[in-house]
Structure formats: C-alpha cells, structure tokens
Amino acid sequence: MFQSVGELIILLWRTLEALPLTWRQHRKVLDQLFEIGNASLLMACVLSLFIGGVLALQTGPILAERGLTVFLGKIVGLSMCRELGPAMMAVLIAGRIGSAMAAELGSMRVYQEVDALRTMNINPIHYLVLPRLVAISIALPMLVVFSILVGWFGGALVSVTNYQIAISFEAYFNSLRDGVKLVSILNGLTKSFVFAVVIGTVSCHQGLQTIGGPRGIGRSVTKAVVNSIILILILDYFLTRMLMHLDR
Amino acid sequence: MNASNSQGSRVSVRGLRKSFHGHPVLRGLDFEVERGEVFVLMGPSGSGKTVLLKHLIGLEEPDAGEVLIEGEPVGAPGVMDRHRMAMVFQSGALLNSLTVGENVGLYLAEHRLKPPAEIDRIVAEKLELVGMAGTQQKMPSELSGGMKKRVSIARALVIEPQLIFYDEPTSELDPLMAVTVGEEILRLNRRIHVTSIVVTHDRDLAFGIADRIALIHDGEILCLGTPAAVRANPHPLLQKFLTTDFKFNSSPKTP
Q1: How many whole angstroms separate alpha carbon B1 and alpha carbon B85?
Q2: Could you report the predicted ipTM of this complex, rounded to two decimals?
Q3: Among A53, A67, B26, B54, which residue has the least CB neighbours within 10 Å?
Q4: Is A1 in CB contact (< 8 Å) with chain B?
Q5: What is the model's pTM?
C-alpha cells in the first residue's frame, strides 16, 4: 500500500512538473473534456435532480411539522453545494470516467502502446496522463456547478408539489438565497477540484501499472474505481474540517 | 557493413542478468553489436529474446550488468536523443486511437520536428516504402496483423534511426511479405548504415539477412558468429534448432 501511495505522489508530482506543456496537448485536453462532459452531463443532471428531491422529501415534512419550512431551501442549498454535489459527482465520475481512463491506459500498456511511445522518446506522462488530469480537473468542478443548480431545482420541485411540505418556489429560493453564500459554492468547487485530481491520478496510475492481459485490465479498472472512492470519502472528511473555517 | 562511414550506433552488453519472480530469464549475457551491423538474436520461444530486446532499448531495468549505446548507459538522460532508436514491435503496437497517418507521423508531430505539410509528405513516402500507400486515414483496427507490422516499420523509419530493433518482424506475414520485409531491413541497413538488431525464430530470415547471429537458449548465448560459423557449430542443441523440420507421413489416411 505504501508503495502505491508513493507511486501516486510521484506520478502527480511529475504531472504537475509537466503542466507548462499543457498548451502543446490542448487538442487532447479538449477531446477529453468533450468525452467527460458528453458522457456525464445528462447522468449528472438526472442524479442531482433526484438527490435534491430526496433531500427535500426527507427533511421537508419534519421541518413542516415544526413550522420551520423557512429553513428548507437553506438546508437543501447548503447540502448540495458543500457536500452532496461534490461528493456524489466525484463518485459518479470515478465510476464513469475513472474506469474508462484506467481501462484505456491499461489496454495501451498491455498491448505495448505505452512501450511504443517510450521508444519514440515520448513521455507517457506528458502524452497520456497530463491531458487527462487537466481535463478532469476542469470538467468535474463544472459538472458540480450543474449538479448544484439542478439539485436546488429538484429540491424546489418536491417542496412545491409535496402535500406535506407545500411551500412556494419563492419561499424556497428566498430561504436558499439567505443561507447559501458564494463561499459555500467555492467550498464545493474546491472539494470537487481535489476529488478530480485524486480520480485522475489514481485511474492513470492504475492504468499504467496494468499487467497480464484482459484480466489485468479488469483488475486495474476495479482498483481504480474502488481506490478513488475510498480516497474521496477519506479526503472529504479532512477537506470539510479545513473548509469549515472558511465557510462561516 | 561499412563501419568507418556508418551512422549506426555501437551497442555493448555486459553481464546482463534479469529474473522475474525468482526465475532467471537472462543469465549474464555479454556481446557487442558493431556500428551498421545486422545482428540477429535467434532462439526458441521463451529463451529470453524479447526480454533482452526490451533491455537493449531501455524498456526494462536489468538486475545486474549494463547496456551501453556508444559507451553511454541506455537509461542515461538524453541517450534517446543523441542516438535515435526505433523499435518494430511484434504486435505492431500502433496507437489504436490514432489513424495510420497519425501513428506514422507521431514522432515528428510530438517532437515538432517538421511542419504538418512536411510530416504528411514524409508519412506518405514511408508508407509507400512498405507497400501501404494511401492508408493514412485508416484506423489500426481496420488492418490485418501483417499490415499493422508494415505500418509499424514505416513508423520506425520516420525516426531515421541509428539503431533499430525488430521483434519478430516476419511473424504474421505471408512468405512473400516476409521476404519483402527482410529485404527492407537489409536495404535500410545498406542505405543509411543503421545498426539493426533483429529478434526472430525465423531461420530463413536470420540466415538471409544477418551479419552475425547469436543463438540464445535458456537465457544464455549458445553460440555467436557469422551465419556460416553458426551453421558449422556442432553444439547438439544448436543443430537441433537449425535442422528440425516437419516430418509428416505422406501416405494417405486409410478409412
């Protein structure tokens, strides 16, 4: 395990060192951005709509019983942008994009395409890892913005249509506006950026470490997704602790 | 072979050892490959030829010993820049996400060595050289194994290498194309005096193109010399490898 952590840190460091070369790889970054957005936007919106809805459905009736529906927009708004938006999107992207990255790089490794790059003196980190890491670090925060907005809307829909809650759109969004500050959204975006770096690094690392043919590729994909999700949830706690101080 | 005017690189292998999971694959190999030489590494499957080739081009780290390109360790910084090396992989190892044209021009494009129009011209020229003209827009998945190998050779030629490694260059090729590829290896060697190291178990190819042959068995060099010297070597394992052939019963099956 310690060896893997060390390798992850070295991979991340070498990729960060190569950041000035990003412009040379801009076409690949754009391709990856399109790939991530195209594959995930609709799924992210559907997921967020229901997360916001469930949040309102779980908390709304309890607040309504006590005459506290004035806080519903605030609860859904803050939960979406501080926690559920970044964390759920990160899990979704780890499953959808992290697995694809690990599988693609894994098959390139197994079928000697990575070796072919090295024999042409093309650094696989510059050519393969850098564009993916840059693209996911841009794409995940953007998806989280969509997720937050759609989640708020999902909460609003349930708040208005559920007979146990039954508050107006205006009341819901007034409550949300009172509770959610710009710093809360920045809090979520910071988390999502860190999660994106984790997913990109873990998935590329697993892909490039693949050995042993199709079964090895499958193993790398599973490890990439599972390790990413574990790291996301552990880091989520520590990031929340750190960012709490800013968001007061 | 014309070593004095050659642009090829000299390769020295000293005490090379490698084990995987405790199982020795290379057991202390020592040999020199001269500039501009066609050097064939021959041996049965599993004898360590491909592992040796990976060490020669720096894709594997040895447990002991070293590989020197013109006196410099192959893994040292800048060696790949100073001594242009190329490898033709057994599977072709084309990047499946790129077209044939992009694969062949990848080295020039990534290192920004030529403008795009010039790269297109060079790509077309090299593809024509290996009999693959007009395939620039095809994807590797549309090609047969032999076609992939020819594109892989074109990709290696683009580098204008001083040292070129071929891993089983004639496997998956029909006999006519195998001869063409063998001739191309020789032509390239004679034209630009590139040092060529060929891994194969194709005896016809080995004896047809080699200046010298090393026969590897179980991670050791069984014999090394000119094709004539190798043929004349009485070592029983070597003779068995060189002379074993199909011996089918020609009488028809009885019902």
Answers
A1: 19
A2: 0.81
A3: A67
A4: no
A5: 0.84
